[in-house]
Design brief:
single chain; alpha/beta; Rossmann fold; 3-stranded antiparallel sheet
């Protein structure tokens, strides 16, 4: 799929959302059910990025959600250690009085799995090419559960005071992380990537929120970071609703934002 066709697809989705929901969040009176929910506040969507990325990866998703009237917070995941990262994201949810949908990409999925725990206002979890660990599991362990990840040989480890950070070698960044994006774009992404602490990637997960909160999954079938087989395994045990995206890379929220937005909207529709 070309960038032009991606943008056209997202534009069509935005147009459909505008007609259905209204840019300001009001609903056109197409049915009694729509009218009944017109005054219901939309949930805040909390987006959590993973390792080797930052919140800008959500830009297209944010644009679509905001135009549909959803409040959005794209959390700046610290990427230091799983317990601490989850606590940081959880502190953001603490400040939100209304309903919340949490969306995690990659390692961000592990963060929301733990951060959502204990928050009654979290109504849905959406995993986008993401880890959904069970208690006692680590992201690194899950990544290797089934063959197919190209990440381990591509990692460049750089020590910092108190630990070690992992980067993706720029020479293989596009192939591993974002093969369906233009090379010009991925060269920039490789240069600006945010590393993840090895301690964070190997941190033990706690009791998972997906055991009590309904979940949705977006699984890109050409993911070279988290093999699709791993994602299907996690989705099945969580009882999640799955949408697979043929040929999409690990950064499916950038290459196919329309599909990611639709899955978030499906979570909203099912839990409101």
């Amino acid at each position: 799929m070309t960038i032009r066709s991606q943008r056209r697809g997202l534009s069509l989705l935005l147009a459909a959302l505008t007609v259905t929901l209204g840019v300001t969040g009001t609903v056109t009176p197409a049915s009694a059910a729509q009218t009944a929910t017109a005054g219901t506040p939309k949930p805040t969507v909390v987006l959590v990025h993973g390792v080797f990325a930052d919140s800008s990866g959500w830009n297209a998703t944010i644009t679509a959600l905001q135009q549909a009237g959803f409040p959005v917070i794209a959390a700046a995941n610290p990427l230091r250690d799983l317990a601490g990262d989850a606590a940081y994201v959880s502190s953001i949810v603490d400040t939100i009085p209304g309903p919340v949908i949490m969306v995690g990409h990659s390692y961000g999925g592990a963060a929301i799995t733990n951060a959502a725990r204990g928050h009654d206002n979290v109504k849905a979890l959406v995993y986008v090419a993401a880890f959904a660990p069970d208690e006692g599991e680590t992201p690194l362990e899950l990544a290797g559960k089934f063959p197919g990840s190209k990440l381990p040989p591509a990692l460049v480890i750089r020590p910092y005071p108190g630990g070690k950070d992992g980067y993706i070698d720029p020479a293989t960044f596009r192939e591993v992380f974002a093969a369906d994006l233009p090379a010009r774009q991925t060269r920039l992404m490789a240069a600006t990537q945010r590393p993840g602490s090895v301690d964070g990637l190997s941190g033990l997960s706690g009791v998972p929120a997906w055991k009590s909160v309904p979940s949705w999954f977006v699984i890109p079938t050409a993911d070279n970071v988290i093999p699709p087989a791993v994602q299907r395994f996690m989705a099945k045990r969580a009882g999640g609703k799955v949408k697979e995206v043929a040929g999409a890379s690990h950064v499916v929220m950038m290459s196919r934002p329309d599909t990611v937005v639709r899955q978030i909207l499906a979570a909203h529709a099912a839990t409101r």
